[in-house]
Write a structure and sequence with these properties.
Radius of gyration: 26 Å
Largest sheet: 8 strands, parallel, barrel
CATH superfamily of the largest domain: Aldolase class I
CATH architecture of the largest domain: Alpha-Beta Barrel
Bound molecules: NADP nicotinamide-adenine-dinucleotide phosphate, iron/sulfur cluster
CATH topology of the largest domain: TIM Barrel
Mean pLDDT: 95
Helix content: 25-40%
Number of domains: 3
Structural class: alpha/beta
Strand content: 15-25%
Strand order of the largest sheet: 3-4-5-8-9-10-11-12
């Protein structure tokens, strides 16, 4: 057994969790749509059938005023719908546990009736919450209790009550959001009363044989947040009144420290869980950026936790645990922490899925079934679209030949992996390379497929995934020697001077600025560097882990200006949950950002632009073009000239689809249908 700690059962006395891997809570949006419970049942059952130890559902609100726009469980009718989910999971794997998360959004609820201990608006909340009176507090406690009772009736093995992240319970705990002067405010004993009463009364109502988990912000990353002593005091108080497991969380949503983005080092926060574990008698769960079984095993072996929660990795690969158990970890489709199809969707009101696995949350709709008539298929281009198409088609039994002009598979992913903080793309490349091998795809590297060759080989279908060419904007002097493309910069083919202008401020403009302003060694940053750059003190744990700790960021050695024509804020088109981290980290490094610019010309003096009718000369020695892309269709056109038909996918279909999320989804769906 390669993962003795990860695969060890955990005996809770009245029940056993079969291994230490938990699918953490994640709102998917399925909870609210027509037919969503059927889809949720299939989504969770697939993970259960593949040996996850325990599943925690997305948050369910205990009443209307607590809803963040998601589902509630405040009536037997609402609870009955969950039977589909619990039955599906228990039928798929009777030894897998499923717990429902009870999430009272408090001041983050999406309705004007939202409530909180005090009328303190969250920085990211929509409304000033209504201050609860005594009767209101009693109602909120009782609604939590009734919700847990209904969850038990609906067949859940337990509940997780969330007491972190800036949701209701956590706002009672923290001084700046709890200004009360009654027995629920003031000193800490009073501020934890609400949490303790919820747990105590829930335990009394559900009995002893029901898993009760409480999620605590072990480091809330909030100026003036919880002190370490307060975290420990809360944990001890909760175990006294009947929690079975304490789950550690590391943020409030309004915090200015990234805790799950791809630049966060793997397992960065688990030592905090480890410290808490030493203080408590009940098992503890750790989480955040644990995305491969060896990382989970190390965390457990270090004694940092009893259980490891992985939410996004279970979206990325439903068979994560099965592959770990069978020693096929090199076949795991690893979560790269991009947030692009999961949290960015959740926070934009869209259905959750996964960039690397478009089947996530679409298990009843997108399936890779054996092809009725296996075909000989040529896929041209081994970027994200070509790789996804080739592997899905081959999985279905088609005989696939994958042509790639360069010496390696990956396409634009080979550029992305070189950007500091995006090293997880190596995992995606490892996954695809391994699957091409496992599925027997005929991979022809260093092969520029010509129309004549494709015609000669008489494939049944030809799929063009030749990607993009960078857009060359029409600016006077664009051919000047100081103008280079982003591809030449990332591949190191062209040198970059000390004074740089970047034309274009999309995802790639930001990536380029990240790359050329980075001062440290290449490769993933370690926890200490991360802590320094984001102002976190893991060792001394001041309030929230961050109070009084100034971020220390090395300013860029290069003078860099990033420019766009649009009037909108630079970077406003980046991902909803990660864009702010990129904007903030570049601003801290001193990158100058200009919007509303008109490009006049490039010459020996530099880049001439006009902003607000004022001419400006940027005295730069390098101008890097990051002005988007155009589809590359030379092969497609060549085939058409021979009267050969082909299908376009990815960037070759639509340059906008250079976006890997769209490319992989489109390619997988087409390959599932051929
Ligand atoms: P993009 O996001 O479309 O941005 C292109 C940039 O070029 C814009 O800032 C645009 O701004 C500018 N531009 C467009 N036409 C121009 C012209 N004719 N002259 C001068 N400037 C022009 O494209 P991208 O940055 O190349 O990214 C491509 C894809 O990769 C996107 O789909 C993106 O999602 C994905 N990607 C994402 C990330 C990420 O972190 N999420 C990172 C890298 C790539 P103005 O028009 O205002 O000048
Ligand atoms: Fe992970 Fe990105 Fe998939 Fe979300 S979309 S689960 S972050 S790979």
């Amino acid at each position: 057994m390669n993962y003795p700690k990860l695969l060890e059962p955990l005996d809770l006395g009245f029940t056993t969790i079969k291994n230490r891997a938990i699918m953490g809570s994640m709102h998917t949006g399925l909870e609210e749509i027509e037919g969503g419970f059927e889809r949720m049942a299939a989504y969770f059952a697939e993970r259960a059938a593949n040996d996850i130890g325990m599943i925690i559902t997305g948050g369910i609100a205990p009443n209307q005023e607590s809803s963040h726009g998601g589902a509630t469980m405040s009536s037997d009718e609402e609870a009955a719908k969950h039977r589909l989910v619990t039955d599906a999971v228990h039928q798929a794997a009777p030894d897998v546990k499923i717990c429902m998360q009870i999430l009272h959004s408090g001041p983050l609820a999406h309705n004007p009736d939202c409530v909180a201990p005090s009328a303190v608006k969250s920085r990211i909340g929509r409304y000033v919450p209504n201050e609860l009176d005594k009767a209101g507090i009693e109602k909120q406690i009782d609604d939590h209790v009734q919700c847990a009772v209904m969850a038990k009736k609906a067949g859940y093995d337990g509940v997780e009550i969330i007491g972190s992240a800036g949701y209701l319970i956590s706002t009672f705990l923290v001084e700046k959001t709890n200004l009360r002067e009654d027995e629920y405010g003031g000193n800490y004993e009073n501020r934890i009363r609400f949490a303790v009463e919820i747990v105590e009364r829930t335990r009394a109502a559900v009995g002893e044989d029901f898993i009760l988990i409480f999620r605590i912000a072990a480091m809330d990353m909030l100026e003036g947040g919880m002190s370490w002593d307060e975290v420990v005091t809360l944990g001890k108080a909760l175990e006294k009144v009947g929690v079975n497991i304490v789950s550690t969380h590391f943020t409030w949503h309004e915090s200015a420290v990234p805790t799950i983005a791809t630049m966060v080092p793997r397992a960065a926060f688990t030592s905090v869980t480890g410290r808490l574990r030493k203080q408590l008698n009940v098992p503890v769960i750790t989480s955040n950026r644990i995305n491969m079984p060896d990382v989970a095993e190390e965390v457990l072996a270090r004694g940092d936790a009893d259980l490891v929660s992985m939410a996004r990795p279970m979206l990325a690969d439903s068979a994560f645990m099965r592959k770990a158990i069978e020693g096929r970890e090199d076949e795991i489709n690893t979560c790269i922490a991009c947030n692009q199809a999961c949290l960015d969707h959740t926070f934009s009101g869209k259905l959750t899925s996964c960039l690397v696995n478009p089947r996530a949350c679409h298990e009843t709709m997108l399936n890779y079934l054996p092809a009725p008539t296996p075909k000989r298929i040529a896929v041209i281009g081994a970027g994200p679209a070509g790789l996804a198409y080739a592997t899905v088609a081959a999985e279905r039994g088609h005989k696939v030949t994958l042509f790639e002009a360069s010496s390696e598979v990956g396409g634009q992913f080979n550029l992305a992996k070189k950007i500091p903080g995006k090293e997880e793309f190596y995992e995606t490349l490892r996954y695809f390379a391994r699957m091409l091998e496992v599925l027997g795809v005929d991979v022809r590297l260093n092969t520029y497929a010509s129309p004549a060759q494709l015609q000669a080989e008489a494939f049944d279908d030809i799929i063009i995934a030749t990607g993009i060419t960078p857009r060359m904007p029409e600016i006077d002097g664009i051919g000047h020697a100081k103008v280079v493309s982003y591809i030449d910069v990332i591949t190191g083919k062209k040198p970059v001077g000390d004074k740089v202008a970047v034309i274009g401020a999309g995802g790639i403009g930001f990536d380029i600025c990240e790359l050329i302003s980075h001062s440290g060694p290449s490769g993933a940053v370690d926890r200490d560097v991360f802590a320094k750059e984001w102002g976190v003190d893991f060792d001394n744990h001041p309030r929230g882990g961050v109070t009084g700790v100034e971020p220390v960021v090395a300013r860029s050695a290069r003078e860099i200006t990033m420019i766009q024509r649009k009037d909108s804020r630079v970077g406003s088109g980046l991902g909803k949950t990660t864009g702010w981290t990129h904007r903030l980290s570049l601003a801290r490094r001193g990158i100058n950002m200009i919007n509303g610019a008109h490009y006049d010309r490039v010459d020996d003096a530099g880049l001439h632009i006009t902003v607000d009718n004022k001419p400006i000369l940027l005295d730069v020695d390098t101008v890097i073009l990051c002005a988007g892309q155009l589809p590359r269709r030379d092969l497609y056109d060549g085939l058409a000239a021979l009267d050969l038909t082909a299908d376009l996918i990815g960037g070759a279909f639509e340059a906008r689809e250079l976006d890997a999320k769209a490319a992989i989804k489109q390619a997988s769906e087409m390959a599932a249908a051929i």
